[in-house]
Amino acid sequence: MPKDLDRLVGHGKKANLGPLVHRVIAEVHSASGSENWPLNRIELNLYQDPEVAGWEYLVVLSVFDSSFQAANQCLSKFYRRLDEFSSGLKSGERTLFRRLIYFDVVATQTA
Fold this sequence. Notes:
The protein is 50% helix and 23% strand. By secondary structure, it is α+β, with helices and mostly antiparallel strands. A hairpin with a 7-residue loop joins strand 1 and strand 2 (56-64). Helix 2 packs across helix 3.
C-alpha cells in the first residue's frame, strides 16, 4: 500500500481499513474475471477533502482498456455486486466501507 494509505489505515477507528481494502480489491478482480471485463489495473488514491477538515477517503480507481461507456457499464454492474459484498461485512467494517471507500473508472480508449 502507498505510504499515505498506510497512514490512513494504520491507526484508530480506521485500523481495520487495510484488510478491508484488500478484500475490496479481491472483489474487483473477482468481478472482472467472472464478467470478463477489460480491467487493466486498479489504482488506490487517497484524497483529503478540501471542504471538510480532517476527512480523508479512498477512491478505488478501476482502469479499463475500453471506452468510457463500457467502463461505466462495468462499474454499474459492480455496484450491484457491492451491495451483496457490503451486506456480508461486520457492522464496523460496513461503516468504514460506506464512509471511506469510493469507486470510479477510467477508460484508456477514447471511442
